[in-house]
Amino acid sequence: MKFVSTRVITADVHRLVAFYEKVAKASAVWGNDLFAEIPTPVGTLAIGSDKTVPLFGDGSAEPAANRSAIIEFLVDDVDADYERLRGFLADVVTEPTTMPWGNRAMLFRDPDGNLVNLFTPVTDEARAKFGV
């Protein structure tokens, strides 16, 4: 098995895609107006419209209802990304902080309220874990 992507369902695909293009510094690949992907070297963030939910089963997904998952991006310098994004982000949950497990991380919410974590490994053990 190979993990490929995480899909976020939203009522406003264009808004959420534009948000993640800025955060990830990557261009979306659009399948159509209801679906786009933000590719990264190790996985893809897929963004789908709530109009696609009936294809999977009515009520199987609900936009802006996540309270358990965190979308995470490993970045070169979380402090630099915080400075780059701080005026753009409406809801910063945690400013850059060094975590007990060796990552320096910031946490914020996307326009739908999903949690996003940008982190940089800063200890030798954390760097080894991520190969940086």
Structure characterization notes:
Helix content is 23%, strand content 36%. The protein has helices at residues 13-24, 53-56, 78-85, 124-130; strands at 5-10, 29-32, 35-39, 44-49, 70-74, 92-98, 103-109, 115-121. It has 132 residues and is an alpha/beta fold. It has 2 domains: 1-49, Signal recognition particle alu RNA binding heterodimer, srp9/1; 66-132, 2,3-Dihydroxybiphenyl 1,2-Dioxygenase, domain 1 (Roll), CATH 3.10.180. A hairpin with a 5-residue loop joins β7 (103-109) and β8. The chain is globular. It contains 4 helices and 8 strands, in the order βαβββαβαβββα. The strands form 2 sheets. A 4-stranded mixed beta sheet has the order 1-4-3-2, covered by helices on one side.
CATH class of the largest domain: Alpha Beta
Main structural class: alpha/beta
CATH topology of the largest domain: the name is: 2,3-Dihydroxybiphenyl 1,2-Dioxygenase, domain 1
User: What composes the largest sheet?
Assistant: 4 strands, mixed
Give, in spatial order, the strands making up the sheet with the most strands: 1-4-3-2
Q: What is the percentage of strand-forming residues?
A: 35-45%
Task: Please provide a brief summary of the model.
This protein is α/β, with parallel strands linked by helices and 132 residues long.
List keywords for this structure.
alpha/beta; four-stranded mixed sheet; 8 strands; 2,3-Dihydroxybiphenyl 1,2-Dioxygenase, domain 1; 23% helix; 132 residues; 36% strand; 2 domains
